[in-house]
Amino acid sequence: MEGSYMEGLEFSLRKAGPSSMLLFLMSPLKSILLRRLRSLPLKKANRGILYVGTMRDAELRVKIVEERARFDKNPKEFRDSYKTEQEELREQISSARTNLYTVQIDHELRLKISKVCAELNVDGLRGDIVTNRAVKALAALKGRDIVTTEDIATVIPNCLRHRLRKDPLESIDSGLLVIEKFYEVFS
Fold first, then answer.
1. Are 181 and 119 in contact (CB under 8 A)?
2. What one-character DSSP code corresponds to residue 175?
3. What does the DSSP 8-state code read for residue 47?
4. Comparing C-alpha atoms, which of 185, 184, 186, 179 is closest to residue 159?
5. What is the pLDDT of residue 56?
6. Residue 164 phi/psi, 5° resolution?
7. pLDDT tens track for 89-128
8. Rounded distance, CA 118 to CA 96, Å?
9. Per residue in 3-52, pLDDT tens?
10. Given CA atoms 151, 49, 161, 23 in this order, what sign does their dihedral have?
11. I need a surface site. Which of 53, 112, 124, 176 has the fewest CB within 10 A?
């Protein structure tokens, strides 16, 4: 298990199989963020896609600062207050790991994933492979054994957006090019 501590967010990576990893967020602060993200109204093109960036909602920023102060004051009490949520998440991840290898992707969906990669001029097959693995992991996490188009829409921007740049000095796409190509191919 490899771990790190980054700006108050503790995490670890664990093997989920021979060549796949699961990210475990151990900071209870992430529960606040996840609850908030789930409540946000997302546009169709952005449905299910998580963008990490600067928080613009002042109320949420204050809540996070207050929760961080509560954590600093008494880490054990803070962790205990999120114990139930953390246990539920742990069980969900454990179940997903167990069921990961039973998840199926329809051949037509695999073809469309590869078409998106080809049309975006993604080098090699790594983008295809990573996207196929990620959608299976997401379906397993949601408790399903079949990958859906929505699963693909959720993960494909994060699997491909950094693979679009050819020049190391070029900035990484926000994911909009991938989303546009996804809807073009999957429509």
1. yes
2. S
3. T
4. 179
5. 75
6. -85, -25
7. 999 999 999 999 999 999 999 999 999 999 999 989 999 9
8. 30
9. 333 333 334 434 334 433 333 444 455 555 455 444 444 333 333 444 44
10. negative
11. 53
Under a CB-based contact definition with an 8 Å cutoff, are residues 34 and 66 in contact? Answer: no
Query: Looking at 79-83, 174-178, 183-187, which range is the least confident one?
Result: 174-178
Least reliable range by pLDDT among 20-24, 65-69, 131-135, 159-163? 20-24
Q: Give the pair of three-digit tokens for residue 138.
A: 């997401």
Q: Give residue 54's identity as a one-letter amino acid code.
A: T
| DSSP helix/strand/coil, 180 | helix
User: Is it the case that residue 65 has pLDDT exceeding 60?
Assistant: yes
Instruction: Say if residues 159 and 134 touch (Cβ distance below 8 Å).
Output: yes
SS3 17: strand
Three-state SS at 88: helix
Amino acid, single-letter form, for residue 98: T
User: For residues 158 and 52, what is the distance between their CA atoms, to the nearest angstrom?
Assistant: 11
- Supply φ then ψ for residue 165, to 5 degrees: -80, 135
Instruction: Supply 159's token pair.
Output: 């699997």
For residue 15 the two structure tokens come to: 């093997």
